């Protein structure tokens, strides 16, 4: 198996982990403050990262790496969790899943602009078609219009794409574990006092179900999933592996149906089939790195 194929498979595992983020976030924010869920999960993951980095005897980041880590943290440790948690307070996970379907295009765009990847015209056409499909699905689900929470979801897309692209690039020299680990640790001095204040201000009384959901987004969505995802981006390229994210909305739809009990109908499967076909086509298009 070549590096690109390994990258695609690792990216798929990461996407599978991330696909359950919205359903579990939906459960958590039903009883806990959305900002507390967003920042608190990063605090839990940061504590785990301290132990991991110590075990790996990870060297301190260089000044150049530090800049990239701060951008990564701003995107995937702060931005995406905050905006997605706010959105999940108002709209179903299934709605959020399809709106976030534009994430592969955004990730490819950040990779191209920031790091000089040059996807071919065919790749961009495939990415645009795939994104158009999921946007059409979102509009269909929303009765022809977007919810106000969609603004938060679009902001989450921008934040995640920025963090994915920057972190994927850093993983080529640092490794995926160290990238997310250092990004979390660097965020800890700010997010820890914020989480404590939010917990004191809004309370932390919640059911075991809500805390179980919080545990998933803390340990898997915010920590373990990135090991696979950033390694995949480093091996296979940001633009190409990022296409795997087109599968995430439909994996999330299944997760929302099983975990939250949201409706999954036959039309969802038709859209999923269309997106999978586009991913297969985009995978064959040339990308200059």
Helix fraction by DSSP (H/I, runs of at least 4): over 70%
* Total strand segments: 2
Biggest sheet overview: 2 strands, antiparallel
Work out the helix count.
13
Oligomer: single chain
Radius of gyration: 18 Å
Order of helices and strands: HHHHHHEHHHHHHHE
Low-confidence stretches: none
Strand order of the largest sheet: 1-2
Strand content: under 5%
Q: N-to-C terminal Cα separation, in Å?
A: 19 Å
Shape: globular
Mean pLDDT: 87
Structural class: mainly alpha
Could you give a short description of this structure?
The protein is mainly alpha-helical and 289 residues long. It is built from 13 helices and 2 strands, in the order H-H-H-H-H-H-E-H-H-H-H-H-H-H-E. Helices cover 81% and strands 1% of the residues.
